[in-house]
Amino acid sequence: MLAPASNSSALRTIGSVLVVGGGVPGVQAALDLTELGLKVYLVEKSGAIGGVMARLDKTFPTNDCSLCILAPKLVEAGRDPNITILTKSKLIALSGEPGRFTAKIRKQPRYIDEEVCTGCAATMWAYPVIGYSALYLDLTGKRFRFLAAVAPDKELFQQEVPFGYLS
Length: 167
Prior knowledge:
Elements: H1 9-12, E1 16-20, H2 24-35, E2 39-43, H3 66-79, E3 83-86, E4 89-97, E5 100-107, E6 144-146, H4 147-150, E7 164-166
Parallel strand pairs: 1-2, 2-3
Antiparallel strand pairs: 4-5, 6-7
Helix pairs in contact: 2-3
């Protein structure tokens, strides 16, 4: 947490900020910190930012479209040059003090060439990882291939394309 500073030059000495978690609070914190002129590293363990809200259809109690609320924030975070998003990553170690720390982050492999991938899902059947979706309890134990695992940085939301395929 940042302490109040007497002048704006005190904030510049901090350097970079590490935000762990790419859900709604993490994305909003990253956006707020970049408005202060700070460089932000946003670490998310899953393949995409947005958290649970990105998977919801409607929000309670207003019944608003969750992606209509969330998508502008995700796009803003993705386009901000001061935010580096590290998906499929975990914080392993953190040492130092506020403003002067070292973080060790483990990034899991994607098994695809992110520069070439267009998110078309053509390579999905060759992808080595299979599993099941905890969101769809009736599919527990069946082989389930995640489209988000194939093209995790292509902003694929459930409302746009199938979330996965049974094999």
